[in-house]
Input
Amino acid sequence: MLIKVRKPWELREQDVTSQQLYVNRRQVIAGLGIAGAAAALPVSALAGAFDGAIKTDWGKDELPTSLKDITSYNNFYEFGTDKGDPKKYAHKLTTDPWSIKISGECAKPGTYALEDILKGQDVEERIYRLRCVEAWSMVVPWNGIQLSEILKKFEPTSKAKYVSFKTLYRPKEMWGQRRNFIDWPYEEGLRMDEAMHPLTMAAIGIYGDTIPNQNGAPIRLVVPWKYGFKSIKSIVEIEFTEKEPRTSWNIRLPREYGFYANVNPTVDHPRWSQAKERRIGDFFRTPTKMFNGYASEVASLYDGMDLRSFY
Ligand code: MTE
Output
C-alpha cells in the first residue's frame, strides 16, 4: 500500500472542504469529545496532528478563512515581498531540528530544543481574527499554546519588563534575506503584561495540522489585538529585557510603525485609512474594530495611555 507522507506545505482535505463544512466538523468533534469522535469517524477524517487539540470558545461564531487562502496569501518577507512568494519558496526552510535561545532577565536562560519547550503543554484550538496593517484580514483556526505557559518555564525575573523575539537568520534557505529589505533578522517585542495576557498565543498548527512553513513554522507568535506584523514567525530567540526592545518595522519606518501597533480604526496609517478592512474571500470592506474586536479583554492594559502617540 502506498502511504503518502504529506509535507506541511502541501494542501489537504480542508483546501477543498468548504468553510461551513469545516465548522460543522469541528462542532461534531467538539460535541462527541475527542475519544468519541475518533471512534465514530474514519481515521482519514482525523488525520491532522492536532485534531486532539482542546477546543476553546475563542472565535466559535466566526467563519474561518479557507486553508487555501491562509496558506497562499502571506507576508513573510524572508521569502520575498509578493503575497504568493512565501508559499512558493518556504518549503526550502528546514524546521527540524529547531531550538530556541532564551536569554536576558530570567532564571533559566539557555538553548532549548523545541520539543523540550513544548513538552507537557496542552495544545488548544483558538479561532482568531488577524488584521494586517495593510487593511486586509483573515480568520485563522490556530493550534497552539498560551504564550504565558511557555514563558513561565524560564522564570522571568522582576526586571523583565519586555520580551523580544527574533526570527531565524538563514539566507541560504530564506532568499529574501539576501536583500536588505529589512535589517535581518526580523525582530519583534511585547511588553511583559501583553506577552503574559491570556489571549497571546504561540502557534504551532493551523486547521488541526502542523503549521505550514509559509505561516511561520515551526512556532510563531499570535497577538490578535495587534496588527499582524507583531505576530513574528519562525522564532529562534526569546529575550527578557528591562528596556523596550527594537522592532523591525519601527527601525525601517519609525513614523509609520510604532512599538505598540494595537489595531485602532481611529488612527490612520500615514499613507492609508485604517477605518475598514477587506476580509480575504469577501468582496466588500467591513469596519475595523478597536483592538480588532478584543477591546473587552485588552483595553485595560493601556489605561491612561494616549493611543494616538503610542501607535
Ligand atoms: N514574521 C517574519 N519573520 N517575517 C515577516 O515578514 N510578516 C508579518 C507577520 N510575521 C512577517 C512576520 C506580517 S506583516 C503579517 S500580516 C503576518 O506575519 C502575516 O501572517 P500570515 O502570513 O500567516 O497571514
Observations:
- Residues 1-46 have pLDDT under 50 and may be disordered.
- The pocket of MTE is lined by residues 74-78, 130, 132, 167, 186, 215, 228-229, 231-234 (CB under 6 Å).
